[in-house]
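Students often ask why inverse folding is considered easier than folding. One informal answer: many sequences map to the same fold, so there is more than one right answer. In these notes we will look at a single instance of the problem. The structure comes first.
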């Protein structure tokens, strides 16, 4: 009979599953995203870590896949240059 996995082993299994499902994502990206709501991860129990990773995995699996990450990168860069884009829109309003 197989013994049940400990919370520590469950957390590692979830990370392994995530790596298989999303091979382009590194472990830091998974952990940072899964744990962003937690202020003190040093004090987290293994069970809390499993809960956070499970919740993150479920949300990630429900996400719409984006085959081209460059599109997302472009959106992020455009958002960082929002002031420039808005200034151009204001300039066009005056010239129309």
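Output (designed amino acids):
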């Amino acid at each position: 009979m197989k013994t049940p996995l400990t919370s520590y082993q469950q957390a590692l299994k979830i990370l392994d599953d995530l790596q298989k499902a999303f091979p382009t994502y590194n472990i830091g990206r998974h952990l940072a995203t899964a744990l962003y709501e937690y202020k003190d991860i040093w004090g987290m129990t293994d069970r809390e870590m499993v809960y956070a990773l499970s919740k993150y995995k479920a949300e990630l699996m429900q996400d719409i896949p984006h085959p081209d990450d460059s599109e997302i990168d472009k959106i992020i860069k455009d958002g960082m240059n929002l002031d420039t884009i808005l200034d151009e829109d204001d300039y066009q309003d005056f010239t129309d």
